[in-house]
Structures are given as structure tokens and as C-alpha cells.
Design goal:
Order of helices and strands: EHEEEEHHEEEE
Number of strands: 9
Shape: globular
Radius of gyration: 17 Å
Distance between the termini: 37 Å
Mean pLDDT: 93
Number of domains: 1
Strand order of the largest sheet: 1-6-7-8-9-5-4-3-2
Low-confidence stretches: none
Largest sheet: 9 strands, antiparallel
């Protein structure tokens, strides 16, 4: 399953280098890595994923990542959530927040959540350094279910970043979310 990528970086960096590197590791280790949600979520019925650094191993990356999303409701395939990173050195103050909402289209529901979200996890894992950071990214690949195209149309804003993430199967839209985030650190 070879993929082809088109990548157009954002016009400016949206995060400090150490925070971005931590965010990439956290995303790769949680949803993209098919991590198991915590057993007792803070929010009833939510799925919550966490990732943190060991300060003795990574003293320059003292962060805690928390991703909480809801995917329950009358319509399968819909979800809404937020990622949050807090500093372990700043008394737990947030340094980043990214919200997202969307889900499967009617055509995506026909293919099934497992099929679509499996492809999403693959793209996120393989291209985590580029996607959902205000960049423009297009990944094309084929597998046993046919041809797929992942698109992230990100933008850098004065206040942070935003974007729209979509997946197409054989040219038909099957997945669609919008996202936005901001960094609370000075200069970003």
C-alpha cells in the first residue's frame, strides 16, 4: 500500500519546536497508534486518551496530553472532541488546545466506521508531522477496498490554526471534519 503525498507547509510555525515534537509523539501514540482509551473517563461515556513524558527521560518536554471525544448519539460515525496539552512545569496550565467535530457521510456509513477510521489512523500515523497543523496535505493511496484520497486543507490564522480534513473513496466523500487550535504560549 504505497501512498503519494502532496505537501504545502503553513506560512509560519504555529508551535514551539519542543511542544510540536511532543504533540506529534502524543498523537502517534494515542489515536493514530490505536491506543486503548482510559478505563474510567472523567466525562461519562467519553473516550479519553492520555500521553505524558517521563521528566527523568525527557526533561525538556514536560507535557501532558489529553484527548477526549464523544462518538455516541443517534447517528453512528459522528464525533466531537478536543485535545489539550498542559505543562507539567507551569502547575498544569494549558499550553495548547485543539477542537474537532465531524464524522462520516452517508456514503461513509455504508462502508463502515472500521473501514474509514482504519484508513484515517493509517494516514495520521504515517503523516502525523504534517496533518492538522495548518498545512495543506493530500495523500493518495490504494488498498483492497479501492482508491483513497485524504485531504487536509489547513490554514494559519492570527489566533492559531484551522482546517478541514476529508477522506474520499473512489472519488466520493466519506469522511469530513473541521478543526481549530491555538497555542497559549507567547509568540505563537
Amino acid at each position: 500500500m504505497e501512498s503519494e503525498i502532496e505537501y504545502h507547509p503553513a506560512e509560519r510555525e504555529i508551535l514551539p519546536k519542543d511542544l510540536r515534537e511532543f504533540f506529534v509523539r502524543a498523537r502517534r501514540a494515542t489515536y493514530a497508534g490505536n491506543a486503548k482509551p482510559v478505563d474510567t473517563p472523567l466525562l461519562p461515556r467519553a473516550k479519553e486518551l492520555v500521553y505524558t513524558t517521563d521528566p527523568t527521560q525527557e526533561p525538556n518536554s514536560p507535557y501532558y496530553y489529553y484527548d477526549s471525544y464523544d462518538d455516541r448519539g443517534e447517528r453512528p460515525g459522528n464525533f466531537a472532541g478536543a485535545e489539550r496539552i498542559t505543562s507539567l512545569l507551569e502547575g498544569g496550565d494549558p499550553v495548547l488546545r485543539c477542537q474537532y467535530v465531524g464524522g462520516l457521510t452517508n456514503e461513509g456509513l455504508k462502508l463502515g466506521e472500521g473501514t474509514i477510521y482504519g484508513r484515517l489512523q493509517r494516514v495520521l500515523k504515517e503523516h502525523v508531522e504534517k496533518v492538522r497543523f495548518g498545512n495543506k496535505v493530500k495523500v493518495s493511496f490504494a488498498d483492497d477496498k479501492g482508491d483513497w484520497v485524504y485531504e487536509d486543507k489547513g490554514m494559519v490564522e492570527d489566533w492559531g490554526w484551522s482546517g478541514r480534513e476529508r477522506i474520499y473513496h473512489k472519488g466520493i466523500l466519506v469522511y469530513d471534519i473541521i478543526y481549530g487550535g491555538n497555542c497559549y504560549l507567547r509568540g505563537f
